[in-house]
Amino acid sequence: MKRFWQFLLREKIVQLFSVVMAITLSSGVAITWLEPDLSFGSGLWWSIVTLTTVGYGDISPASPGGRILAIIIMFFGIGLLGTLSASLAAIIISHRLKENKGMYAADFQGHLILCEWNHRSQAILKELRADSHTKDQKIVLVANIDEKPVDDDNLFFIKGSVCEETLAKANIAQAKTVIVLGDDTLEATARDAKVVLATLTIESLANNVYSLVELVDEANVAHCRRAHADEIIVGSELSSRLLASAAIDHGISRVVSELLSTQYGNELFSIPLPNDLVGSKFIDVFTMMKRERQSIVLGVLKGNNGEHISNPPSDYILEKEDRLIVVSNDRVSMCESGSPG
């Protein structure tokens, strides 16, 4: 409220509104003095109607003094309300322009920060908006581009390179997840170096945020791990492995593409283990999920940031902090509390 009040004072909205109110009250008092048959309430009503040039005609001054006052109020009303309307319109337009130019700071909590804008950023945003879990999530884009690239009410743009200043504007301390993509304008080595530097900056400002980083060269993975990145994806490595698998087993790429997309088919989820399944064998949970939820459990994550176990042994005992990696066509039902079924 303090910042809003300071904004109104700075833009002289309070002063203009005060002048309008003063004229309304004083003319309401004056017309009741000049027109004895009018009450103060009726005089105030007449003052508002005349000042706004609405002119219902339900109250009309009969005395010469009242008519002169009406003429003065009508002229003042046109000028003052025109000035007030123009000021408000200019403020709204200016705010919108500055927002589109990335000149404001974000004050969200639990939001996602997306660093850099390219075709991969567009694909990521599209997938996030297609998922019911993140379709309305606040996302802050930090990129060195001229203006906000897409019309998305829940996307907030901050102009600049990924550095301490822009990350502070993005409210990195209250963010939940940060995605750091490579700068496509740079060659591979410089691109990965920039990603590693951005990761170091992020972790130094907010080591509680979950950081996902994209690299070109697998040799730089160790640098990102030393920078404490939570998850590292090497684009070329992932593509190469997928191509090799598709060459050996035709059609594999289509299956993987479906599982990774939220826009069609089944999806790959990570869900918390229900409390009443703690201590159960993996095979029991596997059959229960398939029988009662038509879902397949592919593996286990040891907590949010822990190691993963693909296709665990049948007698693997599930622990409290384990998360299930499942294939299902409905995230909502997977995220419901309680055990499956």
What are its keywords?
341 residues, alpha/beta, Alpha-Beta Plaits, 4-stranded antiparallel β-sheet, 12 helices, 47% helix, disordered C terminus
Helix-strand layout with pairing:
Blueprint: H1 2-10, H2 13-34, H3 40-51, H4 64-100, E1 112-115, H5 119-130, E2 139-143, E3 155-159, H6 164-169, E4 177-180, H7 188-205, E5 210-215, H8 221-226, E6 231-234, H9 235-248, H10 252-260, E7 267-272, H11 282-293, E8 296-302, E9 308-310, E10 322-328, H12 331-334
Parallel strand pairs: 1-2, 1-4, 2-3, 4-5, 5-6
Antiparallel strand pairs: 7-10, 8-9, 8-10
Helix pairs in contact: 2-3, 2-4
Give a short synopsis of this structure.
The chain has helices at residues 2-10, 13-34, 40-51, 64-100, 119-130, 164-169, 188-205, 221-226, 235-248, 252-260, 282-293, 331-334; strands at residues 112-115, 139-143, 155-159, 177-180, 210-215, 231-234, 267-272, 296-302, 308-310, 322-328.
Verbal overview:
The chain has 341 residues and is of the alpha/beta class. It contains twelve helices and ten strands. The chain has helices at 2-10, 13-34, 40-51, 64-100, 119-130, 164-169, 188-205, 221-226, 235-248, 252-260, 282-293, 331-334, and strands spanning 112-115, 139-143, 155-159, 177-180, 210-215, 231-234, 267-272, 296-302, 308-310, 322-328. The longest helix is centred in the N-terminal third of the chain and has 37 residues, at 64-100.
Shape: elongated
Order of helices and strands: HHHHEHEEHEHEHEHHEHEEEH
Strand order of the largest sheet: 3-2-1-4-5-6
Q: How many β strands by DSSP?
A: 10
Estimate percent helicity.
40-55%
What percent strand? Answer: 5-15%
CATH class designation of the largest domain: Alpha Beta
Main beta sheet: 6 strands, parallel
